[in-house]
Amino acid sequence: MTVVPGSGSLPVLDAERSALERAAELAANGIGRTLPNPVVGCVVLGTDGSVVGEGWHERAGGPHAEVNALADAGVRAHGGTAVITLEPCNHTGRTGPCTEALIAAGIERVVVGARDPFEPAAGGVERLIAAGIQVIDVSELAIGAVAAEVNRVWLTSMANRRPFVTLKTGMTVDGRVAAVDGTSRWITSEASRADVHRLRAEVDTMMVGIGTVLADDPRLTVRDPGGLESARQPLRVVVDSTGRTPSGAQLLAGPGDALVATATNYPGPGGRVDLAALMADLFTRGRRHVLLEGGPRLAAAALDARLVDDVVSYLAPIVLGAGPAAVEGGSVATLAEAHRLELRDVTRFGPDVRLSFTVAH
Ligand code: AOF
Ligand code: ZN
């Protein structure tokens, strides 16, 4: 345990351990709604160790998790413990500092699941200690892993100063995304495609290569289960080195914004778009999670540039025997150079299987 100076070597109580798990569950309610902000959950324990308040950060610009949990607890927070997945903010951004809210509520002990890497908000732990509050920072402990896990998109993005990148592929058992004649609609099932819309609704940016735009002219919008376009649409980005996107391309039309990234804006070697520069720019524009939807050459380039964090593959029970693969080209020349992934999850979607991986960097 990282024992914070002034807190003594206080053990984490069982109730606090459970509260941190619960706080991570609460935080997960915000996934897809809080970007560019983190997901955060908070549980307030009363003086007898029972849960007296719960809250989470529901949307960017809205009240922070701590404020919602303190409101839920009311006077029962006095003398109690706040268990939070992320270090409380110590700044006035769109809302006031949570450190001051915790102090004002009479909280005597705070358990922090992960430290806040966002400089303007940091310093919460030190501020609480200065106010005489016991602070237990479990970010380096195994029990802190739930807090890092639920917020891993945001924490990874902040650490890398670029958006978290999820590469999505929909392919046949032999790894192909189209037949030799170019037909590709629909390889994966309706159930898989509905899950892709759920995934799109979780990100703030969708990215495709120019080849995909020219071949499929996708709308790249998020639709709800009823097929209606959702009110909040991610930014759509086309990686288009030589500026071939037709002015009538569907993804340039609304709703939401679109960005055509060319080699003029982001010059890279060989007249290509510098993907790392594009990602860094997207980060400065407040983008924290990119869903990379192909095509195969953009996927290879992003993997080679070590810009992919997760891979989500929908595998359809179809064999084609010919046609482009989900990832084409790139620098891998021998098995030892292969991009290595770690399997996180396997789930069935209708006749298909969804495989979720993290890239082992
Ligand atoms: C949140 N929700 O529950 C906590 C956050 O844009 P603001 O003013 O709301 O501030 C956002 C920053 O505050 C965020 O990047 C993070 O560093 C810190 N804590 N943010 O959105 C929360 N606790
Ligand atoms: Zn806050």
Automatic annotation (TrEMBL):
NADP(+) binds at residues 170, 186, 212, 216, 241, 295-301. It comes from the Bacteria. Zn(2+) binds at residues 64, 89, 98. The keyword Transmembrane does not apply. The active site is at 66 (proton donor). Its cofactor is Zn(2+). One of its GO terms (biological process) is riboflavin biosynthetic process. Substrate binds at residues 184, 200, 220, 223, 293. Residues 15-126 form the CMP/dCMP-type deaminase domain. Its EC number is 3.5.4.26, 1.1.1.193. Binds 1 zinc ion. Keywords: Hydrolase, Metal-binding, Multifunctional enzyme, NADP, Oxidoreductase, Riboflavin biosynthesis, Zinc. It catalyses: 5-amino-6-(5-phospho-D-ribitylamino)uracil + NADP(+) = 5-amino-6-(5-phospho-D-ribosylamino)uracil + NADPH + H(+); 2,5-diamino-6-hydroxy-4-(5-phosphoribosylamino)-pyrimidine + H2O + H(+) = 5-amino-6-(5-phospho-D-ribosylamino)uracil + NH4(+). The keyword Phosphoprotein does not apply. Pathway: Cofactor biosynthesis; riboflavin biosynthesis; 5-amino-6-(D-ribitylamino)uracil from GTP: step 2/4; Cofactor biosynthesis; riboflavin biosynthesis; 5-amino-6-(D-ribitylamino)uracil from GTP: step 3/4. One of its GO terms (molecular function) is diaminohydroxyphosphoribosylaminopyrimidine deaminase activity. In the C-terminal section; belongs to the HTP reductase family. In the N-terminal section; belongs to the cytidine and deoxycytidylate deaminase family. Converts 2,5-diamino-6-(ribosylamino)-4(3h)-pyrimidinone 5'-phosphate into 5-amino-6-(ribosylamino)-2,4(1h,3h)-pyrimidinedione 5'-phosphate. This is Riboflavin biosynthesis protein RibD.
